[in-house]
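Morning!

This is the sequence you dropped in the shared folder:
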Amino acid sequence: MKFAMTVITAASALLFAPQIASAADGKEVYDKACAGCHEKGIAGAAKLSDKAKWAPIIKQGSDALTATVIKGKGAMPPKGGNASLSDADIKAAVDYIIQQAK
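The structure's back. Tokens below.
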């Protein structure tokens, strides 16, 4: 019984590890793929520090913002120009941006 619980616990940790890692990587993804434009406001990108500009954007919700980043919008190419990013990476970056811009 003890062995079975150990196996179940280990398997659960492995299943949820990618989700935990991607959530923890939001800042890293932002720094690599988003900051280039969102720190300086390039091509009309909302600066991360501009809380007033982000307020109506954030009201759309995390899922809508994630979908927008995945598809691209205006001057922003799909996935911020980094096609190798997973949808989970994008979601982590969006969640990071939302937390920073509130």
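Headline: Helices lie at 2-24, 26-38, 51-58, 62-71, 87-101.

More detail when I'm at my desk.
O.
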